[in-house]
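Exercise: predict the fold of this chain.
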Amino acid sequence: MNPDNENFFEKVYAVARKIPYGRVTSYGAIARYLGTARSARMVGWAMNACNGREDVPAHRVVNRKGILTGKHHFEGTNLMQQLLENEGAEVEDSRIKNFGEIFWDPSEELGRVTGDKE
């Protein structure tokens, strides 16, 4: 893996660790917070690469419409959905129904990161 990717992935994990219990964010929101708005897909790769690290709540990161696009990277059939529902998310057909209510925007909650540019 490219060392730059590893550094980016660690930045993604640092943001993911700050997502409060019962809240979710999107790949794009993390990318924007990191100053790399066009890197939402790479945030997804980082989430997939964390391989169930218990210190990274990857289940709290979904796509911009609240769809559980990363669910196939979790053990078991519905583990991502179960984890979210245990935290109060309402999930139907692999989509968070109360997405607007529980969405957490790191740029609003944590301020802006400096140093990274698109």
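Check your answer against the key: The chain has one domain: 3-104.
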